[in-house]
What does this fold into?
Amino acid sequence: MAIFSKSSVPQFSVDVYQNEYLPEGGREVNAVVTVTATGGGTIGSAVAAPHLYSPGEGPSAAVVLMVDCSGSMDYPPTKMRNARDATAAAIDTLRDGVHFAVVAGTHLAREVYPGEGRLAVAGPDTREQAKQALRKLSAGGGTAIGTWLRRADRLLASADVAIRHGILLTDGRNEHESPEDLKAALDACAGRFTCDARGVGTDWEVKEVTGIASALLGTADIVADPAGLAADFTQMMETAMGKEVADVSLRLWTPAGATVTFVKQVAPTVEELTGRRTEAGPRAGDYPLGSWGDESRDYHLCVEVPPAAVGQEMLAARVSLVIPHADGSVQNLGAQGLVRAVWTDDLAASTSINPQVAHYTGQAELAEVIQEGLDLRKVGDMDGATAKLGRAVQLASASGNADTAKLLAKVVDVVDTATGTVRLKAKVEEADEMTLETRSTKTVRVKK
It folds into this structure.
């Protein structure tokens, strides 16, 4: 386990937003939990001049960059060149002392640098050697992403570090292994490292790339124009270098008779966590939150409690933050929040919806109806697609999600925002549709 100086370890806090009042016999308790980490070595989401850190400053970390080198990366030839340049830019962003490797992905996974199953340690010499090795990258072969991930896992596991991270770039569909093979690789890698995934161009499968990032608690995005890869890779690596605490879990304790209906991340993106629960003792379960730097995220949880009479109250759930270790020990991060249930005959109190809960319920629905609308459009159900995407326009406007509203406007003509009346555009650029699908889960924070 890495040891940090006190000045570099983020301090975690938990804030709970809810309407705790239920009508007589009411059972469903909703709350939004804001988890915030502050006081680490980052500024916003990026690190200032990360390569200027001395070895040992900041947390110990390892990063593997997986670059698609399949035959399609040669069409157009600028795509491969942009991928090489982007990977070089990411290597330049590595903090001194970070372990790293580059893997060329085709139907195989070839170690480009340093090779022989090893990781290099970032410094002026190794960064230059890695960039020299990148110049030899060429396109040819198929695509088997699960193979790339398993190779990255083996490399990352060879380092005794606190933070393990992957960055994956692909331009095509995963055609040289079965969906079952990819899922098995994701299951094997889940919880072992986080991974950001990027699709370049428009010939890749959105659900594959977003599925990789979701399973490995990373981010997913589209880089439609390969010329934008270097800036995107630099930002991704800056964010990765800002991570200081790995393997954080949200521990949820509920009393006898209560059951957890769902737990989902709702900001900065919607991510379902319910099925990822691991049991953590009597009536407690852990939900993985991945790696953290200086940042804040919101989670929506719903608990079903036993019905009770007016005037009664109970603790519906206790939320804490922990880092479970492989040896069974647990590090408590010292942040806790309480979710309460109070039964009342005050109709106004029991029917009021907490603003945070209402906002994120809408944001989760927004992500859902965009996906449903685009899926219906692909299978030719234009009426169904129009209804779903119209609802998306209405929700995006009501919640102030301007970025999603702009993306929707490239797929539909908006007739009336308030009522969600839209017309599907006759011609939609493939990049615009893929961008909307890829970014559909991005949310805006509620104004507290």
Residues 355-378 form the longest helix (24 residues). Residues 1-7, 42-56 have pLDDT under 50 and may be disordered. The longest strand covers residues 330-343.
